[in-house]
């Protein structure tokens, strides 16, 4: 297949391009080469490339930036997805839309399944939920919700912490946020498997197991041979961030199980592999 990937310069875009390029022709797209907020120019780019599939990962993923500028968040995250979906429909391409655990409210005390009611509490979450609805307009579509991402290609929660600790600084993280950790390339390979099987629909994708942000950061420090005590856990309320964070956003991969797909490996294995690639 010929696959166009939006947001290819981003963290997950890089992982998706790495995964899909193992078996398919990948056309990486960035804001400069295909601006999703410009419907006419984006469709023209798709008409020229004419991909079989568009993997749409371009977004403003920073919760605090979205909270500070809702208009911009909805322009990029929602209207941009409308433009991508419309272009996919016009050229007959399938669409993989990358979504998020932020579509939930974080009040549940057991893992969220794909059919659970959505109730986003942030601008980012609301913009991404509306984007899911836009993606539904494409006949062949996959909506993929992911959680805490780490991986090569761009600064992320894990390597940011390791670099701070290696420089002798403390790394302050929320101690009361529970979720999943996800290696971008692992998620990308699983998404590719689902797409190749032709099983359209809504999926949660993450590495197996749950962890708090504190557990994730300390595990990474230990794997890197650094002092895990330099990771300082504080309640989210003391982080003084503009957007609220979900206390609990563990994703259950029910759709993968029902579809007969194997689950990605445990997060500890994925983290160990990733940490050993980081040069501090």
Structure overview:
There is one protein chain. This protein is of the alpha/beta class and 280 residues long. The chain has a domain at 2-149 and 179-207 and 251-262: NAD(P)-binding Rossmann-like Domain (Rossmann fold). The chain is built from 10 helices and 12 strands. The protein has helices at residues 11-20, 39-49, 63-68, 70-91, 123-135, 157-166, 184-196, 213-223, 254-258, 267-275, and strands at 2-6, 25-28, 53-56, 94-100, 141-146, 148-150, 171-174, 178-179, 181-183, 201-204, 211-212, 231-234. The chain has a 6-stranded parallel β-sheet, sandwiched between helices. A two-stranded parallel ribbon has the order 6-9. Helix 1 (11-20) crosses helix 7, helix 2 packs parallel to helix 4 and helix 4 (70-91) runs parallel beside helix 5. The longest helix has 22 residues, at 70-91. It is globular, with a radius of gyration of 18 Å. The model has no long low-confidence stretch (mean pLDDT 97).
Pick out its properties.
280 residues, alpha/beta, Rossmann fold, 6-stranded parallel β-sheet, two-stranded parallel ribbon, 12 strands, globular
Structure described in brief:
The protein has 280 residues and is α/β, with parallel strands linked by helices. The chain is built from ten helices and twelve strands. The termini are far apart.
């Amino acid at each position: 297949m010929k696959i166009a990937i939006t947001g290819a310069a981003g963290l997950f875009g890089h992982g998706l391009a790495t995964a899909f390029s193992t078996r398919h022709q990948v056309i990486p797209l960035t804001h400069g080469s295909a601006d999703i907020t410009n419907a006419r120019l984006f469709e023209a780019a798709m008409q020229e490339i004419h991909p079989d599939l568009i993997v749409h990962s371009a977004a403003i993923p920073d919760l605090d930036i979205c909270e500070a500028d809702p208009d911009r968040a909805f322009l990029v995250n929602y209207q941009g997805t409308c433009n991508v979906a419309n272009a996919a429909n016009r050229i007959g391409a399938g669409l993989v839309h990358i979504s998020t655990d932020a579509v939930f409210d974080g009040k549940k005390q057991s893992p969220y399944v794909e059919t659970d009611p959505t109730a986003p509490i942030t601008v980012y979450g609301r913009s991404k939920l509306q984007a899911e609805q836009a993606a539904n307009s494409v006949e062949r579509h996959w909506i993929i919700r992911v959680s805490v991402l780490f991986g090569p290609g761009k600064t992320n929660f894990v390597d940011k912490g390791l670099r701070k600790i290696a420089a002798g600084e403390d790394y302050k993280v929320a101690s009361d946020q529970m979720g999943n950790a996800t290696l971008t390339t692992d998620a990308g390979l699983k998404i590719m498997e689902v797409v190749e099987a032709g099983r359209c629909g809504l999926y949660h994708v993450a590495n197996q197991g749950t962890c708090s942000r504190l557990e994730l950061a300390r595990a990474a420090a230990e794997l890197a041979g650094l002092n895990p005590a330099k990771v300082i856990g504080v309640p989210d309320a003391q982080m003084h961030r503009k957007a609220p964070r979900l206390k609990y956003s563990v994703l259950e991969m029910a759709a993968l199980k029902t579809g007969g797909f194997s689950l990605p490996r445990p997060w500890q294995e994925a983290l160990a592999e990733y940490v050993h690639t980081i040069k501090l």
